[in-house]
Amino acid sequence: VKFMSIAKENGTGRRKTVLRVINICLTAVIVLLLCFAVLKIFFITWVTGEQTSMYPTYEDGETVFVNRHGDVSRGTVIVFNDSDVSTPQLASAFGLFSGDARLLIKRVVATEGDRLWLEEIGNGEYAIRIGCADTENTIGEEYFDADGNRVELAPITLSPDTACVLYDATRWDPYVVGEDHVFVIGDNRNGSIDSREFGDVPLPRVVGTALN
Q1: Which of 16, 28, 141, 197 registers the highest number of CB atoms within 10 A of its CB?
Q2: DSSP letters for 79-143
Q3: Rounded Cα gap, residues 107 and 41, in angstroms
Q4: Nearest by Cα to 103 from 145, 181, 47
Q5: CA–CA distance from 124 to each of 162, 167, 169 (Å)?
């Protein structure tokens, strides 16, 4: 009887140990999932580029990590919703409540108050000129990647058919980027649908800036 009692106690002890280990493992998994969700919703998320509009900076299908608190300034690459969503952080992190909105990746070429206009360069083509709101100077395009290397991009040239929102923009009557908006263009200049077509982007739609 004493032997059976000891065996029973040993069996109960083993079951308690197993349950304790299971409980610890489940708790650890829940904590990790919560940390993952908090990280993706509030700090860093990542998206897969399903477009060639940012080539050669990003390839089609490449994963882009996004800093939700990055500085949205001229030259930075941003990820944004192409239309308003009710819960942008959940939408960009897990695709929840996003409706028909899509995430796009483009480069900021002008910020609030900057002026853009067209300058004819011959053969029926126009170049985009950008005037800085702070200095009133015409600024060039000089962009760098996350490692500090210069990003070489083809010049932006447009025809009357592709100028879209900039068609009537001149030095004396320029297109002015709105308050709390940015003007974005894809690095694949001839294969990108961007602010030239849909206008400047409201900052509340911006998810964050590219990290890689």
Answers
A1: 141
A2: EEESS--SSHHHHHHH-TT-TT--EEEEEEEE-TT-EEEEEEEETTEEEEEEE-TTT--EE---E
A3: 22
A4: 47
A5: 11, 12, 15
User: pTM for the complete prediction?
Assistant: 0.85
Helix (H, G, I), strand (E, B) or coil at 6: helix
Smallest Cα–Cα separation from 75: which of 20, 150, 24?
A: 150
C-beta neighbour count of 91 within 10 angstroms: 18
Cα–Cα distance measured from residue 144 to residue 76, given in angstroms and rounded to the nearest whole number:
8
Mean pLDDT of residues grouped by 10 in the chain (212 residues)? 53 76 91 91 86 87 92 94 86 81 93 95 90 88 79 86 92 95 93 93 95 85
| Chain center to CA of 169 | 28
What DSSP string runs through 21-56? HHHHHHHHHHHHHHHHHHHHHHTEEEEE---STTTT
Long-range contacts of 18-26 (CB under 8 A, 24+ apart): none
**Confidence at residue 2, expressed as pLDDT on a 0 to 100 scale:** 46
Alpha-carbon Rg for the chain, nearest whole angstrom, is: 26
Residue holding tokens 């899509």?
102
